[in-house]
Amino acid sequence: MFAGLTGWHLLIILAVILLLFGAPKLPALAKSIGQSMRIFKGEVDELKKDGKDGKSDQATDGTPTNTTTQNTAVQNTAAQSTPAPTPVDPSTESNPKS
């Protein structure tokens, strides 16, 4: 993704960031980004841990983990309850096209 960036590109990007945010705001911006990344990593680790525990809990509960059969049954009944349109022969159509 960033393979084509050279040192000059990075300097230009840093200069633009400095101009946009100003020198006094950069430390606060870096601190905020660091805190956000730390929170994000913690949440990802927690989800990974919960995902592993959740899979083993579902397997021991005896509850079905795959609901596609239930969804398919609902879709089939919905498809059966709506009538199919009847085909119309264009030669017997009552409205002639102008």
From TrEMBL:
An example Gene Ontology biological process = protein transport by the Tat complex
Query: What is the annotated localization of this protein?
Result: Cell membrane
Chain intervals with Basic and acidic residues compositional bias: 46-58
| Ranges annotated as biased composition (Low complexity) | 59-82
Bias class Polar residues marks the residues at 89-98
Positions of region (Disordered): 46-98
Instruction: Report the InterPro entries cross-referenced here.
Output: TatA/B/E, TatA/E
A GO CC term assigned to this protein in UniProt: TAT protein transport complex
Oligomeric and partner information: The Tat system comprises two distinct complexes: a TatABC complex, containing multiple copies of TatA, TatB and TatC subunits, and a separate TatA complex, containing only TatA subunits. Substrates initially bind to the TatABC complex, which probably triggers association of the separate TatA complex to form the active translocon.
Q: What does this protein do?
A: Part of the twin-arginine translocation (Tat) system that transports large folded proteins containing a characteristic twin-arginine motif in their signal peptide across membranes. TatA could form the protein-conducting channel of the Tat system.
Name by which UniProt lists this protein:
Sec-independent protein translocase protein TatA
Report the source organism: Leifsonia soli
- Gene this chain is encoded by: tatA
